[in-house]
Amino acid sequence: MTLPPLAKRIFEEHRRIIVPLAVLLGIDLILLALVLFPLASRVGAAEARAAGASARVADARAQERLAKNTLAGKTRAAEELKRFYAEVLPADGSEARRITYLRLAEIASEANLRPDQRAFSLEQERDSNLVRIDLRMRLEGDYPDIRRFIHALETAPEFVVIRDVTLTQKDEPSAPLGVTFELSTYYQARHGT
């Protein structure tokens, strides 16, 4: 390929300027290819690593918040359980027996129910320091009185669980209804109690 005469003449007249400019342009292209493109790719890789690190930091902060919330929830649950043991459950075995024997007989009497029979049992809860006192109590009376007894028992401040209720009626129409309650209360055992 030959240069047109005008271009050839310009090149000849300005050779001292064009050749150094062409060399500089070549050097620039070489620098661009050898230095700037690798730097740009390194910058891109560094930005990707920074974005990944930011995502990991955000995940770590979320996990930290979750762990703190879990710890706070466990602490709150432990405090509420401690309060339940101290304020709701009977303090010891004698108070638990008083609730299951005297207080339940008192509530039955207030509801116009007559006690027929009672049976007690104690059981240490497995893997726990709680002792369960079970009471099987058979009462006789009218249906509204039985309902009044159940309501009084459920709204009483003492902690008593109604585990089962069995209602029976004798063959005689005028005979009172019989009701058998299986009740439980718990207390916290204290060193061999």
Describe this structure in words.
The protein has helices spanning 5-13, 15-88, 93-110, 143-155, and strands at residues 114-124, 130-141, 161-169, 177-188. It has 193 residues and is α+β, with helices and mostly antiparallel strands. It has two domains: 1-88; 93-188, Ribosomal protein S6/Translation elongation factor EF1B (Alpha-Beta Plaits, 2-Layer Sandwich), CATH 3.30.70.60. The longest helix is centred in the first third of the chain and has 74 residues, at 15-88.
Compact overview of the structure:
The chain is α+β, with helices and mostly antiparallel strands and 193 residues long.
**Oligomeric organization of the protein chains:** single chain
Which CATH C-level class of the largest domain is it?
Alpha Beta
Give the domain tally: 2
- Using the 3D structure, state the CATH architecture of the largest domain: 2-Layer Sandwich
Q: For the largest beta sheet, what order do the strands appear in spatially?
A: 1-2-4-3
